[in-house]
Specification:
245 residues; alpha+beta; Deoxyuridine 5'-Triphosphate Nucleotidohydrolase, Chain A; five-stranded antiparallel beta sheet; 4 helices; globular
Length: 245
């Protein structure tokens, strides 16, 4: 399947497969944050669009378009504007994306990437038919605070999702006893987890000894049953270099 980025201007669109790493995760003791596989898979579960030129922005707390002030280092390559008011900063991507039929793009901020005083907003775009480019919007969460966007910093994260996919599911709630095999497996996990935590507290274990790895290895609590399509990392293909044609 193809995911195509059609550039609408002269400036290339910097898009890359999102990395699994985060600076704040690097700084956790012994890098323990990377032991959470759901976290790292989410980090890398799409592509990032990068900011072209450094700038700082500050919101004065007002609702008007002029309530956001910016200090811009490179006006020719600057991507952000204030269009909507209400403390919303808008990035113009300069591209139209195309996906296969019935596939949308989920557009959001990079997962688990924390930025003080401003919050990325999410949107869902029908990119299999739409000829319209989209914008990436960030909302200030605190006034009178200067926010810096560096050159090369990810300002948008996107991944494909089938149209109307969540609506295909029929939600239900049951006691876990309704699935005896699942209940037995869960009880086994709970007992093992409780013993493990008691041992950790008693021994103050650190490093690999302080980490249960069954989920990371794709194993059920019996330690023997594996999941054949378990993912421990994603390797997304990069967009080819923009030929500026």
């Amino acid at each position: 399947m193809k995911l195509t980025c059609y550039r609408t201007g002269a400036e290339p669109v910097a898009v890359r497969p999102a990395p699994a790493t985060r600076e704040w995760m690097d700084r956790t003791p012994s890098g323990y944050a990377y032991r959470c596989l759901p976290l790292t898979i989410a980090n890398a579960h799409g592509w990032e669009i990068l900011n072209r030129a450094e700038f700082t922005a500050e919101w004065d707390g007002g609702d008007g378009i002029d309530a956001i002030g910016m200090q811009i280092t490179d006006p020719a390559r600057h991507m952000a504007r204030s269009h909507f008011g209400s403390g919303i900063l808008t990035f113009h991507i300069g591209a139209v994306f195309r996906t296969p039929a019935q596939v949308n793009l989920w557009v959001m901020g990079s997962p688990n990437l924390v930025k003080d005083a401003i919050q990325p907003l999410a949107g869902l775009v029908e990119t299999d038919w739409s000829p319209y480019s989209f914008t990436m919007n960030w909302k200030f969460t605190r006034a009178k605070t200067s926010v810096r966007f560096a050159a090369g910093e990810p300002i948008c994260f996107l991944f494909p999702i089938e149209r109307n996919y969540p609506a295909r599911f029929e939600p239900e709630t049951l006691p876990i006893a309704a699935d005896p095999a699942l209940a037995r497996s869960h009880r086994r996990w709970r007992r093992g987890r409780d013993r493990f935590l008691q041992q950790i507290r008693a021994s103050a274990a650190t490093g690999a000894a302080a980490w249960q790895k069954d989920y990371m290895r794709g194993l059920t609590p019996d330690g023997a049953t594996g999941v054949p399509d378990h993912l421990t990392k994603l390797a997304l293909l990069p967009f080819p270099e923009d030929g500026r044609g």
